[in-house]
Fold this sequence. Notes:
The complex is a heterodimer.
Chain A: H1 2-32, E1 36-41, H2 47-61, E2 64-69, H3 76-85, E3 92-95, H4 101-106, H5 119-126, E4 144-145, E5 149-156, H6 157-164, H7 169-174, H8 177-192, E6 197-201, E7 204-208, E8 221-224, H9 230-242, H10 249-253, H11 257-261, H12 264-278, H13 302-310, E9 314-320, H14 324-330, H15 332-335, E10 338-341, H16 358-362, E11 365-368, E12 372-375, H17 381-396, H18 398-407, H19 425-435, E13 439-440, H20 451-464, H21 472-489
Parallel strand pairs in A: 1-2, 8-9, 11-13
Antiparallel strand pairs in A: 3-12, 4-12, 5-9, 5-10, 5-11, 6-7
Helix pairs in contact in A: 2-18, 9-12, 9-20, 12-21, 13-14, 17-18, 20-21
Chain B: H1 3-33, E1 44-45, E2 50-51, H2 63-70, H3 72-104, H4 110-118, H5 125-144, H6 163-191, H7 195-203, H8 208-219, H9 221-237, H10 240-245, H11 255-265, H12 271-298
Antiparallel strand pairs in B: 1-2
Helix pairs in contact in B: 2-12, 3-6, 3-9, 4-6, 6-9, 9-12, 11-12
Amino acid sequence: MKKLLIGLSIVALACSTSVFANGASETKSSEAQADSIYVYNSKGENAKQFAAMCAAYETETGVHVKNFSIGSGQDHMATLRAEMNSKDKPTVYSIQGMKELPEWEQGGFVQDLSKVTTGDFGKMVQAIPEGLRLSSDGINSYGVPYNVEGYGYIVDKAMLKSLFGTDPTADIQAATYSEWANFVTTLTSWIKAPSKMDVTFNGKTYTLAASKDALSSKLNGVFVVTGSEKWTYGDHLLNVAINSVFSSSRDAASATDAQVAQLESSFIRYAQVLDLMTSNLAGADGPAQRGQALVSSSKFGYDQGVQIFAQSKALLLKQGNWAYGNIEGVDSNMASRLEFLPVKMPYEASDVKVNKSIAQLNSSIPVFVPNYYAVNALASDAKKQLAYNFLYWLNNSKTGKDYIINKFDFIPYNADPSTTTVPNSLGNSIISYIDSDNTISAPYNGSPAGWSGDVVGKKVMEEYLTKATWATADYKAIADYAVQKWQDMN
Amino acid sequence: MNIYKKWFWPLVAPALILFIAVILVPFVVGFVNSFLAWRGTYYFNPETNSRATNILQSFVGLTNYKEALQDERFMHAFWYTIEYTIIAVIAINVFALALAILLDNISKGAGALRTTYFLPNMLGGLALGFIWQFIFQIVYTDILFAPDSILHNEFLRYMTQNSNKAMFALVILNIWQYAGYMMIIYTAGINNIPVDFYEAASLDGASAWVKFKKITVPMLMSSFTVCLFLVIANSFKMLDQNIALTNGDFNTRMLALQILRTVKDTTPPNYGRAQAQAVIFFVIIAIVSITQVRVTSKRELEY
């Protein structure tokens, strides 16, 4: 009887531990295989296409690529950390710019690719443009860009045509802030009571149509602002203002308190722009105002904002090219007619500390690398070499490029802007900004963790977007808070 | 040999092994990590400002605890959670007991109603949070309590946009989720009270209130022990509903969410500090729950 009991408990033990044993044996197999790498992809949206790309690589080269993509919306860092703690660490993984770099750099997980000077991969790393490089000191280089993304005011070309009868895009791009602000307020009164009204862009006069047509009669406001999404005015709009003082996230990350204080006047401009936007709001059923409804996620969340814009109720939506798919989901015809207009700020000469003119800043859109492929410094040299080969193939071979452009819907970081087109209107708009050298970057990534969205964005959401009228003192209060918090958190 | 004794270990072993593997070991490791400069994937050496080559180099003593207690957000989350727990414990139990007594007194349809009240408890916290977010933001704000409604009430509008209002919003949500569950426990307790007690009391001319105070409450003490414990523990640990309803905006972070977000608030992620907060969190829950169970079980009656 006793023997039977012991036997039974051993069986029970074996059953409960076999779960763990299974997991372990799976990881062993890819570790043991010399001819294989493990690629960790932190973008859940292209999981299927990513797996297909890895399979294509295996077919072409015979190197097995174990790939793992997180689920859409899943916290990619928690999963990646768990993988880094496991025996089978990713050979290639992703880093979301300067925000995530310190952890992997300090922990010794990330290979400095600038040390690779030989071979095609070495040349490719050397050729990554300065502004797109992931570097903590200006010399090292910690990643190969996934792609580039950009944002600005998304506008429907057909709507501009219906308002003006002609295409004013080039002149709007070059317009000054005061011309722009004048247009915004004029358009708001035109929406209320249409008549022939003159506006100027870049010194040239354009006239709004005498009456509304089928498309423009849908408009009920100029801007749609997704008040419950702190990152839209926290991270992204703030970033436009930060570009007047810092030209890269590295500069921002190493800024002294005095340098951060130089942002004060640009943050006042930021508040002015946000005031202009939220004073000329479109909504789902008629014009919207600042107030508690504006920060309610059931009314002005991301999806609701896209919906309002895609139904032509607003002229402008400040978003990035990632919104293309969402807009296409609502109105695929409109999606093919989209382009970006730059976010202009009422700068004065003394605000600008970077080597750019006000006109340049105001005709540019932020273009940046959201994600980098990093190579694990803890991998063996042989594995690292396999990783380099893989990354070179992905960015330079015909098959790799086809996946990046046509399957992932990415804008390749290394594309020649004068000859490349992508199958998406907003992507092409970004490429034309790159081609004309009208781009600014994403220095907000160098601000302290959580500063832009969770601190400044939160303050703006909780205290200002809910407030009906703003005084000049409010601009100053927002700017003071933003500067103070950056200094405190540094 | 007693049959229970013989089968004790074989039957307990699977649960015990799982408990050790997924609760006890991580707890001990976590406790140790709360004294170290742990960054999630490596240990940090504060002296050389780089990765520690030896785990002992990252020993920081009570620094993580000190930083946690000096962290404004942690302390706010701490008091916010305590306030919420006090209100929730009273509100949920009052509702649950009232429902149990009401349903005990009706003969038709009591089973169906019990099932209905219990149903919300089957939903996950996140789903529930999003449902109620919609109710608070649209139904409460624009329909039920809107300015043009006869029920117009500003306090019940935009409940997720204010620290105090959001606390009551969470209480409402949790009453909906837990009251039905607690009601089942109270119902079981009420069914165990011998009817003779009430009959005898009626003969002596006791009013309904006296019967409730002198018979129902003392006889239900063991149910109170269970229900209070469950609500206190659940309120302290609440995370999903907090994330879904407000995501901590408008100063509504509770302790569990604060611990979860600590690693996002810091770069490189300060897992050591988050772990110290978790240990403090554990100690608080342990003290409160043990005290409560001791106090209420002393009052339980044997007859």
